[in-house]
Design a protein that fits this description.
With 479 residues, this protein is of the alpha/beta class. It is built from 15 helices and 16 strands. A hairpin with a 5-residue loop joins strand 1 and strand 2. Helix 5 packs parallel to helix 13.
Amino acid sequence: MIGPQQIPKALHSILGFALLVLQLSCVGTESTQSSGGIVPSSANTAPQFKPGFNLFSPQQDVEMGKQSAAQIVHEMPLLRDAQIVGYIQQLGAKLAAKAPGEKFPYSFSVIGTKDVNAFALPGGFIFVNAAGAVGVTFRGRSSREKRREQDMQQRRLGTEGLEVASIGLGCMGMSEFYGATDEAESIATLHRALDLGVNFFDTSDMYGPYKNEELLAKALRGRRNDCVIATKFGIRRGPDPTQRWIDGNPEYVRQACDGSLKRLGVDHIDLYYQHRVDSKVPIEDTVGAMSDLVKAGKVLYLGLSEAGPQTIRRANAVHAISALQSEYSLWSRDPEDEIFATTRELGIGFVAYSPLGRGFLTGQFKKFDDLDTDDYRRHSPRFQGENFDKNLALVGRVTEMAVERNATPGQLALAWVLARGGDIVPIPGTKRRSYLEENVAADEIKLSQEDMSRLEELVPRGSAAGLRYPEAMMRVVNL
């Protein structure tokens, strides 16, 4: 861990103020000295910084501390000063609003001793123990991350030569569905992704609609040779954006491709997916039209999304399919039934969307009202009612293990997906640089078979409460 002497000077005074807010939230409690961190004793006492932070007080067993999550070291990108300050201030305000003695929302138990409340931030963790001691850890840049721009691992998708970074970037939320958007931050996130070696960007003509492709065009201008652009067609939207239908007609395939090429400002699309299978149009006709796009030089590789095993086989018989994109994560493991066996038999790569359970597996959501009023996830069964609380308990289990591994729960969830096979490429979505950096660092986490088994015991297959989509949307997947 790093002490305050290593925190940028510009940040130090502001961080001290933000943590003073944390201190005030603990007024009225008596504190025992911990082996690091900040120990508030009264409202008039300024926070005392000490390097590091131990979750155990001196009278507790030292050996237990060594064997536990006491040593929380994060080799993660250190956020820019203003970002760190913003996160700490926001969290400080939330803590200060808590009534004395109220259990904080992000809690876990350390080896059966006392509750320690951990607040995960993209730049580090804040810990508050039962005695009221506050500790902060910041994640410094590892040597591996400093080199990542040159040597991020690559994975092959399919048999036609498509290679991409082991972790891609889902761009949907930059334009729609996940609450407020910020174009400047989204563009900065795309630029940061390229700097980190992420070269695989996923979009669709229905995101926005159209706005997401236009955003990528603006952000990636002048960097075309550095990236692999994947977009999709097939979900059409009317004047009312909520009006949607699936279209796999060959004529529309050609029309949609020309529209995407224009909006993206490119002369070819690297990977072109059918977004959803049109049950009214033979897959051979749709893929035949997609194959013509390859022959015309408008598309390099073909993909399908949320297609069933027989559809995949029929499509691949018309033209080599390089990638199948479907939802896959610790709490959505449907592809393990038949899909993986099919794609691996045919040599098709697998692109895992929503590998973080639409953000739930990161631990950032503690209650339904944490979602913006216009966030589409408010309509997702797994985020509603009793399902939310049941799924929150699952995330708590992952968080305990993540802290032991010096990681965030989201990083552990991503590492699990990566470890499920070298033919799988997760594309976690984000619209912020801080979360992007956190996600990319999951590439450094290596899980043993024992780790994998433990995670699958903590989140057993089928344990997620609720469908992954509303029933109407479930009727158009795995066709």
